[in-house]
Amino acid sequence: MIHLSPNEKRYMPGLDGLRTLAVFAVILYHLNVGWAPGGLLGVSIFFVLSGYLITDLLTAEWRRSGTLDLKQFWIRRCRRLLPAMIVMLAAVTAWVTLARPSTMPVLKGDAISSLFYVNNWYLIYHQVSYFEKFGPVSPLGHLWSLSVEEQFYVLWPLLMLIGLKLAPRRGKMFLFMLSAAAVSALAMLVIYDPGTDPSRVYYGTDTRAFSLLIGAALSIIWPSRKLSPRIDRSSRRLLDGIGILSLAAILVMIWSTNEYDAFLYPGGLVLLSLAAAAAVAVLAHPASRIGRWIGCKPLRWLGVRSYGIYIWHYPVIILSTTNGAGDVSVLKAVFQVAASIALAALSYTLIEEPIRKGLLGKGWRKLRSGKLGVDQIPLKGWITGATLLLLVIISFTGIARTPAVASTVQALGPAASGADGSSPVSQEVSAAGDGTGNADAGASGQQTAKGGDHHGADPAETTAGSPAETQTPPAAQGQQAADDAASGTTGQAEDPPPAGGKATSSANPVGVAGTPPAKADEPGGSSGKASGQGAGAAGTNAPPPVKRNLAVSAIGDSILLDAAPYLQQYLPGIVVDAEIGRQMSEAPDIVERLRAEGKLGDYVVIELGTNGAFSSKQLSRLLDSLKDVRQVVLVNTRVPRNWENTVNTALRKAADAHDNTTLLDWYEASSGQSFFTPDGVHLKADGAKLLASLITNAVGTK
Fold it and tell me: Keywords, A to Z (predicted)?
């Protein structure tokens, strides 16, 4: 059996190895590595570790002294966490001030809220998505998790002190912690809305506390100080078996899940936290062979510096990426990881360890006693101090002259929300939107979810021959200005379409996607469900024949909005209901409204998915509601973001499952083409024209 013995606090190298696994999972996620879409789960591993170790320290102190010194606990936490983060904030803010001033508006709010460890609630309040980011992204978008942990460090010792006085028995404490964890998990289940952006439940302290509390509960029944290295062979095998299975479960989830997985929020994160707790229990045990393997010297070295690696990796990735999420290469990724480790190592050696060992306190006492002379400060100290002072001065200068906003679109002012700063509504095609929060916001830094006031008008339908037919939708005007501001270029207007949709700018907000493969009964065809023609330069020069007398309705986001003028030319009488920032979850209501108004045609085009993923159930319900129409054309997407493959896979499967549905493979059609503005998402005029041609070709094939 596994014995418990009254050992003092000891070092557990296996837990540092687990830290290494967690931090590299997060790095792989932020590098958009395709085989680790669930790398964001590394944060939950950190939460479980923190809950276990902090509670283990607190209970050990209680056993030793019969009380908890809260002041000293908080001082130790500040000394451990604040110096490295302040240095990183100063360095990043100084760099952005000098080299990336367009990012300063979103950086300021993140920096200040992170400094006070309320960044997660700041992001929730401003409805900033963690997952849907376009344009200049804040390099501090990862610090929300440190805010969750620090809030735990502030509140948990108080609750522990009360609990230990009222119910000192381990059994009652354990049940209390599990009950609190269950409440937190239930809150996530209740608040989470499948098919919508999950950022609220992802950021919230209330909805993420269960991971910390599961770790805390483990420390009550598995205190590190009582684990003995002397166990029998069968117990060791059991221990190692549990360790292997729990680590395997974690790796499988990192490999197989993603941020939009419907399994993740109703219970998947709870299962991940339980697997992490099992791994912690094994790796913390001195008799575990798995603990020795995972705690080998290289992994241990990285794990000790994992805090620094975590806080540095995201700024390094963001500030060294110049062309959005599409700017990826193995060589660059290796450089980014190496730079993050190097900066973390410097931070650990020059900042974290000296301060943790009392450098500031010793220096202050010497200064007060007059024993600290200039000649006693080593050259390394002068260089470090002077560098930090310079960074602080530059960063404060940048912050002081920049207003804080939650998105870059807000910072761009009227240009981002219409030429005159008013709600950008076209008489012909609605540019109504949602604030920012998605691909349609174009150059927005961080995106807010629905509820913003920048594109607040109701969507309007487009019909051929309206008086405003030659106008450029204000969404395109605003997008042009936003893209120009973000990229430092001025878009040149293209010639208007011959039959009058709108004058299209080279930076118009049109989404990404590709040509559908040919039908299976055609040469080279691969799927009877797919429609469209191969992409190429010729495709943009040869408009399709005009199709008259077809009742067509099209529902989409700004990608469809930009193609609308060409659709009016190729499909006279088409009804287009397009809105900036639209999500698939809104489509059923739009279908019912169009049906009630008598505007739902026999042919329905759905172009959604640019702004985030959706559940298969949502899409199936939508298509089931369209069983009475002759044909539904689903347009897939090309968006260099994590949800691209999720969206396109769901659309392909749905098209295969519904007889009246055709998949237009815009992802393939746009492959390798120069249709896109610098964000890699929105289209120039030739891309919009090709998309309209492909939709026209696809309509009426059933």
Answer: Acyltransferase, Cell membrane, Membrane, Transferase, Transmembrane, Transmembrane helix
